[in-house]
Design goal:
- By secondary structure, the protein is α/β, with parallel strands linked by helices.
- It contains 9 helices and 13 strands.
Length: about 300
């Protein structure tokens, strides 16, 4: 008996510098903080959480700098991800400084580095062999080079009848590239996975339920994550399910959306219906916020 086909993630690998500070930042002087260097990146996190959720064949295509390629490769393979990391000799791995406050909310300072230098030369249609679902990190839509990799991947997946999901990734980057441009680039995706802030931005609607319903006329299925308020599913212009949150003591919200995505996609590939998959996603998201960093804790 064979299991589900593979999940291929095209995304970003990032070195996260996570600074958790309990007191408000004190400009011009010191603020005590717990600081860790951790492997991260939205695409890499999704892949790790999908494996953690039980999916056996998870693959990742990403670009990393030579200075930390071996470190990231080791962490990803240790998590069970099958990697195809393109090593960039000119530009360092993407780096994010995540400032996490006492409420577990985070602010990012981002150096995209090698992540957005993924290019058309790094893509081959053969990468879809054995793949049952393609997931793309929205960050890769925000630079010309990386769009050169993901747009052919989307076309090749559609040609083969492979479902595609996209995480919009960043309201700040969506604003920079333009809402209409982002929606045009993601036209025809099967699953869109925004958080509520991104959903509002993409629709200019203040209520997450209204935004989810509107976005579900752009993508066949929309899952909007709402942090401590759970998640919404929408299809064909209407909200179809409201998923309650999993109660947990929040430590760091970094990677919570990636965890939801990994759990959600793993459950769907295992045969779960959309609502059951979203419940699994919320469970993974709760695990993510209960610990520091964006990846599952080592077992």
């Amino acid at each position: 008996m064979t299991g589900p086909g593979a999940l291929l993630v095209i995304g970003d690998v990032v070195t996260d510098i996570v600074a958790r500070h309990r007191a408000p930042l004190a400009p011009g002087t010191d603020t005590e903080a717990e600081i860790r260097s951790l492997p991260g990146g939205a695409g890499a996190n999704v892949a790790c959480w999908a494996v953690h959720a039980g999916l056996q064949d998870v693959r990742l295509l990403a670009r990393v700098g030579a200075e930390s390629a071996a470190w990231h490769e080791s962490h990803l393979r240790g998590a069970g991800v099958r990697t195809r990391l393109v090593v960039d000799d000119l530009t360092p791995t993407a780096t994010v400084v995540a400032l996490v406050d006492s409420a577990a909310e985070r602010t990012f300072l981002t150096d995209s580095g090698a992540a957005l230098r993924l290019s058309a030369d790094d893509w081959s249609p053969d990468f879809l062999d054995g793949v049952a679902h393609l997931h793309v990190s929205g960050y890769l839509f925000f630079a010309e080079a990386s769009r050169g990799a993901v747009l052919p991947a989307l076309r090749d997946a559609h040609t083969r009848g492979i479902p595609v999901s996209v995480d919009p990734a960043s309201s700040g980057f969506i604003t920079a590239v333009g809402v209409d441009r982002f929606l045009s680039l993601t036209e025809g995706v099967d699953v869109l996975l925004p958080n509520e802030e991104e959903a509002r931005l993409l629709t200019d609607l203040p209520e997450p339920a209204d935004a989810a319903a509107k976005l579900s006329r752009h993508a066949a299925l929309v899952a909007v994550t709402m942090g401590a308020r759970g998640a919404l599913l929408a299809a064909s212009g209407a909200v179809t399910a409201r998923i309650p949150p999993v109660e947990v003591r929040a430590v760091d919200s970094t990677g919570a959306g990636d965890a939801f995505t990994g759990g959600f996609l793993a459950a769907r590939l295992a045969g779960a219906d959309d609502t059951t998959a979203a419940v699994a996603g919320c469970r993974m998201g709760a695990q993510a916020v209960a610990s520091l960093g964006g990846r599952p804790l080592p077992s």
